UniProtKB/TrEMBL annotation:
Principal localisation: membrane
PANTHER family linked to this entry: O-ANTIGEN TRANSPORTER-RELATED, PST FAMILY PREDICTED COLANIC ACID TRANSPORTER
Membrane topology: Multi-pass membrane protein
Location(s) in or outside the cell: Cell membrane
InterPro entries: Poly_Biosynth_Transport (IPR050833), Polysacc_synth (IPR002797)
The protein's name in its UniProt record: Polysaccharide biosynthesis C-terminal domain-containing protein
Organism superkingdom: Bacteria
Residue intervals passing through the bilayer: 12-32, 44-62, 82-104, 116-135, 147-168, 188-205, 226-248, 268-287, 307-332, 344-364, 376-397, 403-423, 435-453, 459-480
The keyword ATP-binding is assigned to this record: no
Keyword set, alphabetical order: Cell membrane, Membrane, Transmembrane, Transmembrane helix
Length: 495
């Protein structure tokens, strides 16, 4: 139990700032839905589906490799070598994107708007250069600096975005800010993002002060052999998460305006699974270095099994918080003039449970990272990507973004299952599968019950009182079923 408490502590240390950071980012997205119509938000969604794909190429698995090799390599040598590699490759990749920006803009559905791709390249450039310094902060257990930089960066972005999109138009109308163009919107949001990313690099200047231009070619080759499969895994993951938003306008049988409007609705509602996403991100911040640090212990498999159980318990509760209170989420995204965002609320529970499956999958991936079978992870991720591609092309024309939501659900469920089965073969972990499935099944059943109650038209207060009761039932079942483990976990004597 002591190991679990250490992970809980690490998750809190890195999770709280991550939660605040992601929540502020969520607030920023809500602000965008209040100033952008669905069509414009669709453009934001498509451009920001492109950036994560490029980020995988730009970072090529070096963050995970840093955690892996700090176990056996002198840290300064590793830090310098990976930073040299990252700086050189970032300049190279950025140059390629800038040169190809007109073609990329056309391919993304922004004909003649190469400037958008150029601005996105600026975001990628600065974000990539902070990768290894952030990894070093995590590996060295420096959560305060990590939190300060993350929070300061998002605050800068929010302040700039709100000023440019809310106050600058008013000042321009009064004869000020001659540079401001009221016909632009998405561009200014990306500019604010790029400036904030540059500030993040500036905030990490002290970490870069220890960097020396020293490159160990032998070490680099060893790192690349480990990390290159992570590129394929990352790209597959981005296909699973972002492909629907990239291809939606191309495969949906309607005009670009209608397609972009529907894409904007889907993107806004996808963000409403933010509680699940934030929880998973916070967990991963603490879990990745924790898993590697525990790998040489005899009881590591038992520790991983307990982590999975507690993770699933928490994710079930997070799913219910999202799924049982959709009316409140609806109010958050429909405060602006465009009320059409609420049309997509029915996909939120599907996406929320799909994201839970993704979180479980992240837990399961430890088997191929520890056994150096990253190539197996590639095959799992590529299989999921194939499912995503086929189902999106098949279902989007028939069911619009509802088809995309269910494609995401099927994809993550299949990846989770495949990783579990292969993991039990190469690195057996005694996961409590009946309990894991039971808790997820209970959460899903309570949502179905709530959906039935809501359909009876009982009114706002009875429906939400029922939601609170249902959430309480879930927590009570968890507390009773796990009372012994929870007591040990909370005990000061444990571990």
């Amino acid at each position: 139990m002591g190991n679990i408490k250490k992970l809980a502590g690490a998750t809190i240390w890195y999770g709280v700032p991550t939660i605040v950071h992601r929540f502020l980012g969520f607030i920023l997205q809500l602000f965008l839905t209040s100033v952008f119509p669905a069509e414009k938000f669709g453009e934001v969604g498509q451009l920001y589906a492109f950036i994560p794909f490029c980020n995988i190429i730009f970072t090529y698995g070096l963050e995970t490799s840093y955690f892996r090799f700090t176990q056996s390599v002198e840290k300064d040598r590793l830090f310098n070598t990976l930073n040299v590699s990252m700086i050189v490759s970032t300049i190279l990749f950025s140059g390629i994107l800038l040169i190809g920006s007109p073609v990329l803009a056309d391919g993304l559905g922004f004909p003649g708007r190469a400037d958008l791709v150029m601005l996105a390249t600026g975001v990628l450039f600065f974000d990539t250069l902070t990768t290894i310094p952030f990894a070093r902060l995590r590996q060295e257990g420096r959560p305060r600096k990590f939190a300060a930089v993350k929070l300061a960066t998002i605050v800068v972005q929010i302040v700039l975005t709100v000023f440019i999109l809310k106050y600058a138009p008013k000042l321009h109308a009064q004869g000020h800010l001659s540079w401001y163009n009221p016909d632009r919107g998405v561009e200014y949001f990306v500019i604010a993002n790029m400036i904030a990313s540059a500030c993040s690099l500036l905030f990490l200047s002290k970490e870069f002060s220890t960097f020396r231009w020293k490159f160990d070619k032998t070490l680099w080759k060893e790192v690349i052999r480990y990390s290159w499969p992570l590129i394929a895994i990352g790209l597959g993951g981005m296909i699973n998460e972002m492909l629907s938003r990239l291809i939606f306008p191309q495969v949906y049988p309607a005009s670009r305006e209608v397609s972009m409007s529907l894409l904007g609705i889907f993107s806004a509602n996808y963000k409403l699974a933010v509680l699940i996403t934030i929880s998973i991100t916070a967990f991963r911040m603490g879990a990745e270095p924790f898993f590697f640090n525990q790998s040489d212990r005899k009881d590591a498999p038992q520790t991983y099994a307990r982590v999975m159980k507690y993770f699933t318990m928490f994710m079930g509760a997070a799913f219910l918080v999202v799924a049982l209170f959709l009316d409140i989420w609806s109010w958050l995204i429909t405060r602006g003039a465009d009320k059409s965002y609420a049309e997509g609320l029915h996909v939120v529970p599907v996406l929320a449970m799909a994201t839970v499956f993704l979180g479980i999958y992240y837990n399961l991936t430890i088997w191929y990272k520890l056994t150096n079978r990253n190539l197996m992870g590639v095959w799992i991720t590529m299989g999921g990507a194939l499912v995503t591609i086929v189902l999106n092309i098949w279902w989007i024309p028939q069911f619009s973004y509802t088809g995309s939501a269910w494609a995401t659900f099927v994809c993550y469920a299949s990846m989770m299952t495949a990783s579990y089965l292969l993991g039990q073969k190469y690195y057996p972990v005694p996961y409590e599968v009946p309990k894991v499935l039971g808790y997820l099944g209970l959460a899903a059943a309570l949502y179905v019950l709530h959906d039935y109650i809501k359909a009876q038209g009982l009114g706002f207060w009875p429906v939400h009182i029922a939601a609170v009761v249902e959430l309480g039932v879930y927590l009570a079942v968890i507390a009773w079923s796990e009372r012994k483990d929870i007591a040990r976990l909370l005990s000061r004597k444990a571990g």
